[in-house]
């Protein structure tokens, strides 16, 4: 058996009929990790002994009502897991071996009897678009290991694409779930801001961060979101709204659906093969009875600047807690207390994190606050208004997830501005707080996946899933597998 062969629902039936055991499944996951993780570096920490022990208990006490019973998954390393090392891929937290509690999302997954096999690689503190900012070895793209898997949830996307786990959790501040999902040819959902609790997610930019699932199919994705979504009294930004049954929204029917396609999303700077694939996808929707029209998000050209100002400002405040006292590896070369703070932070953070803290601190400093931070917040409102206006008339917005397919390792790492500019299609969604998914919609001539982004109204993940699912049913991109060493 290979984890590639089945969806979560199929495995559930097989487990229920006793065709396989949870132990088989979990062992299969570790076998695959052993075979291919040396090539993709998706995992930072494995939890094999505990996972196998839990699998044994589940086999002895099957629970047909648990929504993810026995399903092996992986957790991004900025999400707290009780007793399991959580580093945010930062040297600074290299010794954070024993977190005291589970994030709410992890607790919810555990309640549904899933098995976390380990923690996944990422850009340090979720800052980056290529996973090359990990303090450990960079994760790589399973479709071609000379290329990046995207970021910051690169390990989460690579692990699913490589068939190591059935699902993973990522976090998305400015594209960190959708862009790696696009680069790795898998399904990645950033839910509405407030849909999923962030209690236990190490904060990067609190007005933007959301946790969401990465899977191979839309149905699997809907099922995981059903489990992790919902109000949490431990996170006051989580919305007190009922969680719809997302899996029931997957009717395959998009007749009469009104699609908006922003002209800025197909403009100059978008690679021709990406534009082509999106236009082809729109034809698929037409054949399914949906209609589309061109619209405009006029303020999207300011989105990258506004995003990097707001997110860096919030990061400079959030990351103040890493000082070598409360958290983090303490410098051994300090003479006094102030020196110890300074040296611990200088030695502990990598270059990209330092760049953002400095940018954010500058933007918040007196005299500059109005010119930068306040202006960026005003731009944010204009972008949100652009989205609201479109959604008065249309059900979803569709475009590419990223202007290009995956780039080569090392190609952009010395050019942060180019790396930031590539976030142009994902950050407006975070600034507006609306949900967005990336699903596979084609391949470049080099065989690298292309992602289609579907954006919905606030708290309307159901329509996003229904739209994504209809396309998936009508195409076969999601059935393609990367050829890594080892049995596929
Ligand atoms: N964190 C994210 O969502 C990714 C974005 N590229 C950033 O570096 O901020």
Automatic annotation (TrEMBL):
A Gene Ontology molecular function term of the record: glutaminyl-tRNA synthase (glutamine-hydrolyzing) activity
Domain Amidase: 24-464
Pfam family, one: Amidase
Protein biosynthesis recorded as keyword: yes
GO cellular component, one term: glutamyl-tRNA(Gln) amidotransferase complex
Location of the active site: 76, 152, 176
InterPro entries per the UniProt record, alphabetical: Amidase, Amidase_CS, Amidase_dom, AS_sf, GatA
Entries under SUPFAM superfamilies matching the protein: Amidase signature (AS) enzymes (SSF75304)
UniProt KW Transferase keyword: yes
EC number: 6.3.5.7
GO biological process terms, semicolon-separated: translation
UniProt keyword list: ATP-binding, Ligase, Nucleotide-binding, Protein biosynthesis, Transferase
Catalysis: reaction(s): L-glutamyl-tRNA(Gln) + L-glutamine + ATP + H2O = L-glutaminyl-tRNA(Gln) + L-glutamate + ADP + phosphate + H(+)
Family as reported in the entry's similarity comment: Belongs to the amidase family. GatA subfamily.
Assembly and interaction partners: Heterotrimer of A, B and C subunits.
Protein role: Allows the formation of correctly charged Gln-tRNA(Gln) through the transamidation of misacylated Glu-tRNA(Gln) in organisms which lack glutaminyl-tRNA synthetase. The reaction takes place in the presence of glutamine and ATP through an activated gamma-phospho-Glu-tRNA(Gln).
Name assigned to this protein: Glutamyl-tRNA(Gln) amidotransferase subunit A
